[in-house]
Write a structure and sequence with these properties.
The complex is a heterodimer of chains A (110) and B (871). Chain A is mainly α and 110 residues long. Chain A has one domain: Arc Repressor Mutant, subunit A, CATH 1.10.10.10. A two-stranded antiparallel sheet of chain A has the order 1-2. With 871 residues, chain B is α+β, with helices and mostly antiparallel strands. In chain B, helix 6 packs antiparallel against helix 12 and helix 6 packs across helix 14. The interface between A and B is medium-sized, with 21 and 23 residues.
């Protein structure tokens, strides 16, 4: 099912939202992605990812925090829902399992 | 912090496409990023980045839902409602509705007329089965000598020889145009001018359908003739003409072998009769035979085989010409193929091309421009009146918006209303067209046969025109009206003025620019026509009458005629010879001792020629009965010829005319306009002709009782030439024919100019009617405070008159430029007087005042109390 599957970019975005805690909105997420992961994404690409996550119910949002720098417009703050946290954990566990199943020698860099 | 604004258009674009749910968040983010980028990397980078971000946001997850909107707006029920409300509005304001519809339908009817004409012109020669492979052979001497000519004709042996030598040539056909032919069948006897001798394959190249007869054989035997239906009726009434005989020039009996299905109209070929070429005989006195390559008088058309490239054929033609044509002649020329469609439109300047019909491309472009301008004037009326009335409908717009109409719905509403109006106008235009087309075509001198099946051709034009007109004229008012903010409207805050006022001004200026342009053009054109009418041509055009007499014993009958005619006191003098009609031969004139001749025009005239026609002899004398040898050696030249020959004193000098007449100059005449005023006066010699003459020319004293004189002359004619038709014309008539297309242009521009003025005036009337109602309260207050009717009059008119004056300032130089160009085709032209410009200004202001005055005076006289109380 589509709702279960978590894309890599979407996962990174959710993790970034968690990192930013209560200051996660468009510009801060974008900046954080750039700073931590050196990953440049357009606001448009980010919007698509956030929309998908909202549709799946993995994150929610609320409006607030207008300032002059934004032309008086409010920000939309994103928070990860419980469902989202579960999905993140599942993704991590799935990956850990895979890690553990890998025979040691396979990871040797040849 | 100093705030940076985002790039305007990108921001707007974003606002337009972004889904409203996301707009605040995204626009905020974008702007925040912009501010940070400005601080970090400067404005240029920040703007660049912003633009990129906006473009990258243009994606499905961000876009608003366009499709959803649209599906609402075309619902049928709403459309019905739109139309219902639209018609109510039309009914409520009958004047505006009438002005819109009348203006549009007049404009559309004129466009219709012009469209028909242009379509006919472009279709000329397009009906022939193999027309795309038909070419005319033309003869270009210009690259080979300075005085060389470009001719539409070649020698008679060319066609048969071409067909013989080149496998590429499927068929070749010669045409020889002839005029002044007398035909006789039973009791009917007439002079005919449009007669063609044509080779037997004529119908293979020009596939005119025959009603009777076999096209393959109709012209193959000598003494065969093919008639048009019109001529068949003229000579045989309703009888079947096939097999009947027609007597030509009282000597040759021709048998009718074919009857065309219809009169040939949509072709450049100009004929009423086709005679088989085998019948053709070299005219009396011509020093040539049908084997003479140098007898350049035959229109020659070839049909190339399929797949033959005409360009690759040209070099072969050059070689062919070298082998045959110029083996024994000093004159050199290149022969080319001219494609059939070009014959009609691009051979006006060729010699010997005046025998067939010509189209005029610049005339067609001019007409299309006029049609476009008139439609523009009518469309502007519509726009102006709609925008001016928009305030009245502002409430409706507000209400609709409150009830959930989106902007696109309103635009569709107003557009569909406009479409309804333009449909009505087009229907009215068709009605007008049907009503006026016969007298109008008569007035414009357009020979269009218009059948009901032609309405079918018009359907796409009508439908397309309806939509184009409706949509184009609705777009601006629709956008304007749909932009009203519902709150403002319902609070009554919308006022006239501002942007739409400015656009309205621009449109009025454009309308009057067009109108003034047409007024001044028609004034100047008619001034030139007046100039042509009154110009002293160097001879007497009003009192000279010619009687056509085509017979072998011309001179004997002329003597008798001279005796009889001179009994009438009105007849002052009598001569014979060519009439002045711009159509003369051109021959080499060689002074004694010189080696090469100079090409000059050659006219034929008999004793007393100059004095009868009224040409002034400035040196020497006219041909005279007291010098009978004049018929052999007398030569009269004009001043231009004297100059061309470089003579101070020409009298007594020896000249050779056309290699066969040796004579001496007996007189020099003042330069007269033997050609139309389009062309400069050229060197000309007059001799007594060696071939037979065809006209008796009389000079009459007064033209007051001309009918009586004609009757008398006709009585005499019965004694002189009972076997010949009596054909009488004033010199003026011949001359006027030279300006037929100019007169047509003049009529056209004054007609459509008048129409444009009318439509523009109508528009102004409608506009002031609306505007004065808006200002009625203001006017009331002004009157209470003591303004007079005249004050109010000026107040209301002032702005419009100002606009008309601006329009004049734009139009006058433009019109001057265009008409100056038109005038350049005349060698003799009127000067463009300052006065016609002043007249145009007065006319345009006058029209504007007339259109404005009724409403303005009505408003100015109205009772102020009522106006102020009016709510």
């Amino acid at each position: 099912m589509q709702g279960k599957y978590l894309g890599e970019f979407q996962e990174v975005v959710m993790l970034t939202i968690l990192v930013l805690d209560d200051n996660a909105y468009g510009v801060s997420i974008k900046k954080e992605l750039k700073n931590r992961l050196n990953r440049d994404c357009s606001r448009g690409a980010l919007h698509t990812a956030l929309t998908r996550l909202l549709e799946k119910g993995l994150i929610t949002s609320e409006m607030g925090g207008a300032n002059a720098k934004r032309g008086g417009r409010r920000k939309r703050y994103y928070t990860v829902t419980n469902k989202g946290k579960v999905a993140l954990k599942e993704a991590k566990e799935m990956r850990d399992q895979l890690w553990q199943a890998i025979p040691d020698f396979s990871l040797k860099i040849v | 912090m100093n705030k940076m604004k985002p790039p305007k258009y990108f921001h707007r674009f974003f606002k337009w496409f972004c889904h409203p749910d996301f707009y605040e968040e995204l626009a905020g983010d974008l702007e925040e990023m912009l501010q940070e980028d400005v601080e970090a990397r400067g404005m240029k980078y920040a703007h660049w980045k912003y633009r990129r971000e906006v473009l990258k946001l243009f994606r499905p997850s961000v876009l608003k839902e366009f499709r959803f909107n649209f599906s609402i707006s075309v619902s049928l029920d709403m459309l019905k409602n739109y139309l219902k409300v639209g018609f109510r509005n039309l009914k409520r304001d009958k004047i505006s509705a009438a002005i819109n519809i009348i203006g549009l339908s007049l404009g559309f009817a004129s466009a219709l007329v012009i469209f028909l004409y242009v379509q006919r012109e472009l279709q000329v020669d397009s009906y022939f089965e193999h027309g795309d492979r038909v070419y005319r052979v033309i003869n270009d001497e210009r690259p080979h000598s300075e005085t060389g000519r470009l001719l539409a004709t070649v020698g008679p042996p060319l066609a048969p020889t071409l067909a013989q030598e080149f496998p590429e040539v499927e068929k070749a056909v010669r045409l020889r145009y002839t005029d002044n032919v007398v035909f006789e069948s039973g009791v009917h006897q007439f002079y005919e001018d449009d007669v063609i001798y044509a080779d037997k394959d004529f119908f293979h190249l020009f596939s005119f359908p025959l009603a009777k007869g076999n096209p393959a054989t109709a012209l193959s035997k000598p003494n065969s003739i093919v008639l048009t239906p019109e001529m068949s009726r003229k000579y045989f009434g309703d009888e079947d003409p096939i097999g009947k005989s027609i007597l030509m020039n009282q000597e040759t009996s021709l048998q009718v072998t074919g009857l065309l299905e219809e009169n040939p109209r949509k072709t450049h070929l100009n004929f009423d009769f086709l005679i088989s070429f085998e019948t053709f005989r070299v005219p009396f006195g011509y020093p040539v035979t049908l084997e003479s390559w140098g007898w350049i008088s035959f229109h020659t058309y070839v049909l190339l085989k399929e797949g033959v490239n005409p360009l690759s054929f040209d070099p072969k033609l050059a070689d062919f010409v070298k082998r045959h044509v110029f083996t024994d002649r000093p004159v050199r020329a290149s022969y080319h193929l001219q494609a059939l469609p070009d014959v009609y439109f691009q051979s006006k300047d060729m010699m010997n091309s005046s025998e067939h019909k010509h189209g005029n491309l610049s005339y067609i472009y001019g007409l299309l421009a006029i049609a476009f301008l008139i439609l523009l004037v009518a469309g502007f009326n519509f726009m102006n009146i709609s925008t001016a009335r928009s305030i009245r409908r502002a409430r409706e717009v507000g209400m609709r918006k409150v009830l959930g109409a989106r902007r696109i719905n309103l635009i569709i509403q107003f557009t569909s209303e406009a479409l309804a109006v333009s449909t009505l106008s087009v229907l009215l235009a068709l009605f007008l067209f049907e009503l006026c087309r016969v007298p109008l075509f008569d007035y414009l001198n357009w020979q269009l046969d218009f059948g009901y099946q032609d309405y079918l051709i018009l359907i796409p034009f009508l439908v397309g025109g309806t939509f184009a007109l409706g949509i184009l004229s609705a777009v601006y008012p629709a956008i304007l009206m749909s932009s009203f903010k519902p709150l403002n409207v319902l609070k009554g805050k919308i006022k006239s003025g501002g942007k739409e006022m400015n656009i309205r001004k621009v449109l009025v200026v454009l309308q009057f620019t067009i109108t003034v342009g047409l007024i001044i053009s028609s004034l100047l054109v008619s001034q030139q026509m007046e100039f042509i009418r009154n110009k002293d041509l160097g001879f007497d055009r009003e009192h000279v009458v010619s009687l056509q007499m085509r017979t072998d014993d011309f001179l004997d009958r002329f003597q008798l005629g001279k005796q009889l005619f001179s009994r009438h006191p009105e007849v002052i003098s009598i001569t014979a010879g060519d009439v002045i009609n711009g159509d003369y031969g051109s021959v080499p004139i060689t002074p004694a001792g010189a080696e090469a001749g100079i090409a000059m025009h050659w006219m034929g005239g008999y004793f007393d020629y100059c004095s009868t026609i009224g040409i002034e002899v400035i040196e020497g004398r006219d041909f005279s009965y007291s010098h009978p040898r004049d018929t052999l050696t007398g030569i009269i030249i004009n001043e231009s010829a004297q100059r061309a020959l470089g003579w101070e004193d020409a009298l007594g000098k020896k000249l050779q005319v056309n290699t066969n007449i040796d004579g001496e100059v007996i007189g020099v005449v003042k330069d007269f306009h033997m050609h139309s005023l389009h062309d400069p006066i050229e060197p000309m010699v007059i001799t007594v002709p060696r071939t037979r003459m065809q006209n008796i020319i009389l000079r009459v004293g007064s033209v007051e009782e001309v009918d009586q004189l004609i009757a008398e002359l006709q009585k005499d004619w019965a004694q002189i030439a009972p076997d010949l038709p009596f054909h009488f014309s004033f010199l003026d008539d011949n001359l006027n024919r030279q300006y037929e297309s100019d007169r047509q242009f003049s009529r056209l521009i004054s007609f459509f100019g008048g129409l444009a003025i009318f439509i523009a005036g109508l528009g102004l009337y409608g506009l002031i009617a609306i505007i004065s109602t808006y200002r009625i309260k203001e006017i009331g207050i002004r009157k209470v405070l003591g303004a007079s009717v005249i004050n109010i009059y000026f107040l209301l008119c002032r702005n419009f008159i100002f606009l008309v004056i601006i329009a004049n300032l734009i139009a006058l130089p433009l019109a001057w430029w265009v008409i100056n160009d038109w005038l350049k085709q005349f060698s003799y032209r009127t000067e463009i007087h300052f006065s016609s410009f002043v007249l145009a200004i007065f006319i345009s202001i006058g029209i504007a005042l007339i259109s404005l005055s009724y409403q303005v005076i009505k408003t100015a006289m109205s009772d102020p109390i009522k106006a102020i109380r009016h709510e």
